[in-house]
Amino acid sequence: MYTDPAVVRRKVERELNDFVERFDHYRSRGIWVLQYKFPELLVAFATPRIKPYTLTPYAVLMDLSNYDVEPPSLRFVNPFTLEPLKRREIPTNLQRFRLPPNSQQFPPVIFNPQVGGAAMAPGVINEELLQAWTPEDDQPFVCLQGVREYHDNPGHTSDSWWFHRAKGMGGICRLLDLLSKYGTEAMREPEYQMRLEARGIAHQIPTEPM
Amino acid sequence: MANQDADKDVHLKVVVNGKAVPLKASPSDLLGSLVEPALDKAKVADKSDLDRWVFTNAAGEQLDKNRTIASFGFKHDEEIYLNLTAGVVG
């Protein structure tokens, strides 16, 4: 850390106090803070809409080193073991639907993933905020202004963090809100898959000498 | 007369990126008119993208900024949330 840890800690804890003041609100949305050990914050995301059982498909380890000279770094982890999750192990794309700029065709709320599921309509832009190279990639990242991995990506050198810092884009509560909104809050029902395997075929190999 | 109007004002707590700020507004004002004063009170320095700020209620449902404040029937000191939307993915 190249910044003064005391200053960073003070900034982080000021924002965490804001979170704690609305703890019930965030808890009811499935945003559960599990651990805070400066400079890391571990937050699990649960599914408030899936009935009758709640799922906790992932947690995010937020690294707040040098905050907010640098934006938070986000890493998806297993909430039990803290092992980094591979892309294929994260059951969401952080999918976002939006209208093209200046489009007035429909009220934007229709395309909110939280309302009525993933309503697709002509002209709606479908974006996936979670990016990875392959399904085996163990460093999938959130492609979002205000996230360190976004601004560190060579493809985003023209979109510096410093263009966005004063808007509060890397705010802890904002990022948690978006990870929930496009992730676990958008999950409405579990999808079941039945897989049949033909076992015992190996036993059909003749054991007696021919 | 001024006092009567003041009595009709709606008192809200606007939670800007997690930080709550109290705001008072006339029922006839559009919800969108609260964006700038809320950002001022929350000390958000950069107000260049006002369109990207969206209001949601406690349930996370987006509120239409073109509706009047009276039309939502907010309770006294009700909390609404003002967040910066996700940007363009690229």
Describe this protein's structure.
- The complex is a heterodimer of chains A (210) and B (90).
- With 210 residues, chain A is an alpha+beta fold.
- Chain A has a domain of 128 residues: Ubiquitin Conjugating Enzyme, CATH 3.10.110.
- Chain A has four helices and eight strands, in the order ααββββββββαα.
- The radius of gyration of chain A is 21 Å and the shape is globular.
- Helices cover 16% and strands 30% of the residues of chain B.
- Chain B has two helices and five strands.
- The mean pLDDT of chain B is 87.
Key terms:
A: Ubiquitin Conjugating Enzyme; 4-stranded antiparallel sheet; 8 strands; 17% strand; globular; B: 90 residues; 5-stranded mixed sheet; 5 strands; 30% strand
The topology string of helices and strands of chain B comes to HEEHEEE
Strand order of the largest sheet of chain A: 1-2-3-4
Q: Which class of the domain at 5-86 and 141-186 in chain A in CATH terms?
A: Alpha Beta
Low-confidence blocks of residues of chain B: none
Mean pLDDT of chain A, rounded to whole units? 85
* Number of strand elements of chain A: 8
- Rounded to the nearest angstrom, the radius of gyration of chain B is 13 Å
- Helix-strand topology string of chain A: HHEEEEEEEEHH
- Radius of gyration of chain A (CA) equals 21 Å
How many distinct helices of chain B? 2
What is the CATH architecture term of the domain at 5-86 and 141-186 in chain A?
Answer: Roll
Number of helices of chain A: 4
Largest sheet of chain B: 5 strands, mixed
> How many beta-strand runs of chain B?
5
Neighbour order of strands in the largest sheet of chain B: 2-1-5-3-4
Straight-line distance between termini of chain A: 72 Å
Beta-strand percentage range of chain B: 25-35%
Query: SS-based structural class of chain A?
Result: alpha+beta
Distance between the termini of chain B: 54 Å
Largest interface: A-B, 37 and 26 residues
Ordered list of secondary-structure elements with their pairings:
The complex is a heterodimer of chains A (about 210) and B (about 90).
Chain A: H1 5-21, H2 23-28, E1 31-37, E2 40-45, E3 58-63, E4 73-77, E5 95-98, E6 125-128, E7 130-131, E8 141-142, H3 148-152, H4 172-181
Antiparallel strand pairs in A: 1-2, 2-3, 3-4, 5-6, 7-8
Chain B: H1 2-8, E1 10-16, E2 19-25, H2 35-41, E3 53-56, E4 62-63, E5 78-84
Parallel strand pairs in B: 1-5
Antiparallel strand pairs in B: 1-2, 3-4, 3-5
